[in-house]
Predict the structure of Heterokaryon incompatibility domain-containing protein.
Amino acid sequence: KLGIRYLWNDALCIIQDHAEDRNRELVKMHETYSGAAINILASSARNASGALYG
């Protein structure tokens, strides 16, 4: 357990196929992630639906 109360998943929290919403949120990403205790990301995948670890 990480003991972290909140999880932010930009793929779920930002309406990805709504350009106006996505663009509005993208300019604020530095604020969201700069306050994070940890950041977990996929550094590579075959596509957006690909597995995180191969």
Notes: The mean pLDDT is 81.
